[in-house]
Structure of Alpha 1,4-glycosyltransferase domain-containing protein:
Amino acid sequence: MVFHGQLRSSGLSLADVMRGVSYTLGTSKVRKLWNISTSTSMFFVETNPKVLSLPPRVMCALESAALHNPDRQVYHIAQKDIGVHEYELVLHQYSNIQFLKRNFNDLILRSPVESIYSQTLSGTSFEVKNLSDILRLMVLFFFGGVYMDTDVISLNRVPMGGFKSHHPFIYEALLNMAKDFRPEHWAYNGPNLVTRVAKIYCPAHGGTASENSVDGMWSWKCGDIQILNSTNAYAIDYRDFRNLFNTSHSTEIEAAISNSFAMHYWNKMISWHGRVTLREDQPLYKIFRQNCPVTEEFYLRPLLNQRFHIRDKSTKMRRTIGTHSVQQRVVN
């Protein structure tokens, strides 16, 4: 999530540039096929083939993004049909939420990462995670905009534009991934990749750390990219995820996220290590109530006092609102 600006490369070889030119020639066809044209859009991507219906917690992430960014289109992209029709009340309230069913091969074939694509589907320990790492870069490369994980809740408006399509930073990240892809290393192909590329890209574009930089890395401005301090979206460290379910940490959590525009609540950590029950007085539930009010009232509230984890099931509670249909919002 960065500022718009000029497009300059950093250290790309002529061969890399020519491959990029060849690849980008076909992107207009993909844009037309996917029906996405703006670099101000926000993207959430579902890569787990076992997900057949949208969990309320994911709907909360989408609603919060739509609520705080009414001038942006919020896209949820999956490769198969995912049940969303029970969320009539949310979709009636927000016209800027769209669900797309698309073939991921459209993005990956003939791309710099085509050669490693099969590795993500070959029985490695982190198949879904590896595919997510690839697709978030591909979506941003093709369409620009802002990407968020499905366990990120928007708290305020995104304070910047977003990547332009074909941005050289994203392309350099794709090249780096293709040359040094490690499918069995958690986070190596994701956040660590972005850090590695930033350390190369930023100095080449006159990057200078601001006074409040952390470890000499965050809050850098380099060319048309700004790398923000982690408190903007990651004020809650992954090691402290349990605090989000502990009422005694409410004041601490509120203070930590007071200047954040988003909060990552680490659902993967919850699924791995947490046996937690969703309660109304917990800090996380208060964040749900404030930032996805429709989802909270009609779809999360029925799940109170039940176990909360990655495989949470959509509530059976459904309500109708006249003859309104959400069919037009689910694009096949």
